[in-house]
Amino acid sequence: MRFHVDPTSKTPPYEQVKREITRGISDGDLAVGAKLPTVRALAAELGIAPNTIARAYRELEAAGVLETRGRAGTFVSASGDDTLRQARDAAAEYAARVRALGLTPDEALAVVRAALEA
Q1: Considering the entire predicted model, what is its pTM?
Q2: By Cβ atoms counted within 10 A, which residue in 61, 75, 80, 83 is the most buried?
């Protein structure tokens, strides 16, 4: 799987990397057990700092989406599928609730952004 980061985006690069990885898992492009590129290799490929990739990997590991196996590398965790499934279920429930409340998609996204940043 090829990753992409838009340097002109207002979204921080580490968030874009996290989104690319989770989308790859969700779409089936990254299967459970798939090995991700090393931090340095992915940083070089994307033309961004290795610390940016390391942060994305750390945050995804903390969320249970990835697991690091020492020198063997970073892999898609078996719990990653369940984590994403739970997140999709929660998102679907939230979407149904805000629709019922009459919020626009932009208003609903603003509420989520505020909650995630709190």
Answers
A1: 0.70
A2: 80
